[in-house]
Each structure stands twice: as structure tokens, then as C-alpha cells.
Design brief:
Elements lengths: L11 E7 L7 H14 L5 E5 L7 H10 L4 E6 L6 H11 L5 E6 L2 E7 L7 H13 L7 E6 L8 H16 L3 E6 L7 H10 L4 E6 L6 H11 L7 E6 L2 E7 L7 H15 L2
Parallel strand pairs: 1-2, 1-3, 3-5, 6-7, 6-8, 8-10
Antiparallel strand pairs: 4-5, 9-10
Length: 269
């Protein structure tokens, strides 16, 4: 005689979390990656933003609960870890650590917090492609640009520094890194060192997720190139040098692969 047994089916999903933007393409980037994940067979893929953009994280969690999802992995679409990924985003989701159960209007949802891109070689490979796209070579000056951080872990600083070191190990002769704010060295100081090394041109690569005010206005002003441009001629220590200003990391397929691997790791698919 066969005995029927109840089988509990767990509905799983992915939540991609971005910072938010007033004047950039982050929303387009995240929606593109979400569509690509769906095309890879992930049925329940959601996008949310920490601030400014919509839906907010609480709004997305309410939708996830309404859809009957039991278990999600939240993946921050961030360059590096920081207070946002370690504390503020989990709090908005409704958990207090890297794994917890969020109670969304009575619906219990198991949540796993995945890490940011961090030390992934995908970032380094994208940087190398950005260099190639503008015609840079081993003799060009390389300037890896980061946002900077006030978080005690200094993860953003270390991630930017790590990628600059990787470029040096690949054979690039003149590599510097700099930050928009909070950390040293400054962009001015890095440009000074590159000029003194004798480079004829500089490739400035923003190790940022997407375009926005930082990349469009603030950093170009510090470099000395037009806002929202792909570079231009600058004068450093009385010498004219051409700067190629590349795109950030955006929706590169290698970052999609990173998201896919994280989802399979945490959700066991």
C-alpha cells in the first residue's frame, strides 16, 4: 500500500539591490540584468533600490511576499562591501545579519544576503576591456577611480587598490588609483604622479557601477575634462596630456554571471 506524503514546495527568488540614482543609468543597468537572469530560467527576479529610485526595498519585499515567495537571495549590485551592504540594506529588508527571516505583513521569508562584487576578477577583466576599447596600451597612464568610503572596513578603498595592483601585475607600467571623496590619494595627486612618470596619455577607468552625478559631474571636474564626456586634453604641471574617460562597469555580462553563480550558491539551484 502506498502512503501519500505532503511535499512542501519552496518558492525561491532573487532580489537585486542597487543604490538609486537621480541622474544616471542605474535603473536601466539593473533591469537589464534582471531580464537576463529571467532568460536563464530564474522565474522570480526582483529589483529594488536603497534610496531615490523605485521600487524601494520595503516596496519590493511587499511584492515578494504578495507573490508567495518563501526564500530569496538579496544580491547588492555594489562594487564593494560597506555600511550599506552590511547594515542598512539588511535592516530595510527586515533582517539583522547575513541570513535571517523577514516578516512582511505576516509572511515569513528566509533571506540570504550575498556579498558585493568585491575582489571578483570580473571587475579586473572589465577594466582591461575598457582600456582596450579606447586604445590604451601598456605605456599609457592608468588611473583607476573609486568612490571612497568612511566604513571601518575600507572595503571600497581596498577593492580599488587591488584592481590597480592587478593591472600592474599584468604589465601596465604606469598605474595609479584615486578617489572622488573620503579616501586618499586624491585625483589631483594621482594625475600629478602620472604626469611626472612621463605618460603621453591617461586612461581613467571609473570602478563604479553606473553613470550618475559622481561620474558625470564631480570626477570630470576634478580631472579637468568636460562633464558627461569621454575625456579630453588636460594640463598637468604645465604639460598637455590627453585623458580617455571610460564607461563604468554597468551591465557587463560577466557581472551577470557573478549574479547567477551567487543565486545558485545560496538557493541551491
Amino acid at each position: 500500500m502506498m502512503i501519500a506524503q505532503d511535499v512542501m514546495i519552496v518558492s525561491k527568488g532573487i532580489l537585486i539591490v542597487g543604490y538609486g540614482t537621480r541622474k544616471g543609468n542605474l535603473e536601466q543597468v539593473l533591469e537589464t540584468q534582471a531580464k537576463r537572469l529571467r532568460s536563464r530560467g530564474w522565474e522570480n527576479v526582483y529589483v529594488a533600490y536603497f534610496r531615490i529610485s523605485s521600487p524601494s526595498i520595503p516596496e519590493a519585499m511587499e511584492r515578494i511576499a504578495a507573490d508567495g515567495i518563501d526564500e530569496i537571495v538579496a544580491i547588492p549590485y555594489y562594487i564593494a562591501e560597506g555600511k550599506l551592504t552590511k547594515q542598512f540594506i539588511p535592516e530595510k529588508i527586515g533582517i539583522q545579519s547575513e541570513m535571517g527571516v523577514a516578516d512582511i505583513k505576516g509572511k515569513k521569508i528566509t533571506v540570504y544576503m550575498a556579498p558585493a562584487f568585491g575582489n571578483s576578477f570580473a571587475l579586473t577583466n572589465i577594466i582591461c576591456d575598457r582600456i582596450a576599447d579606447v586604445g590604451g596600451d601598456m605605456d599609457s597612464g592608468m588611473l583607476v577611480l573609486g568612490h571612497g568610503t568612511k566604513h571601518a572596513s575600507m572595503a571600497n578603498m581596498y577593492t580599488v587598490k587591488l584592481n590597480a595592483e592587478r593591472l600592474s601585475s599584468l604589465g601596465y607600467k604606469h598605474v595609479e588609483y584615486a578617489f572622488n571623496e573620503f579616501c586618499e590619494p586624491s585625483i589631483k595627486d594621482a594625475l600629478d604622479r602620472l604626469e611626472k612618470s612621463g605618460v603621453k596619455n591617461i586612461v581613467a577607468i571609473p570602478l563604479f557601477i553606473a553613470m550618475g552625478l559622481h561620474l558625470g559631474d564631480e570626477i570630470p571636474e576634478q580631472i579637468g575634462i568636460p562633464p558627461y564626456s569621454d575625456g579630453g586634453d588636460i594640463t598637468v604641471n604645465g604639460r598637455k596630456i590627453h585623458v580617455f574617460y571610460t564607461r563604468p562597469m554597468e551591465d557587463d555580462p560577466r557581472l551577470l554571471d557573478n549574479l547567477d553563480r551567487k543565486a545558485r550558491h545560496y538557493l541551491g539551484e
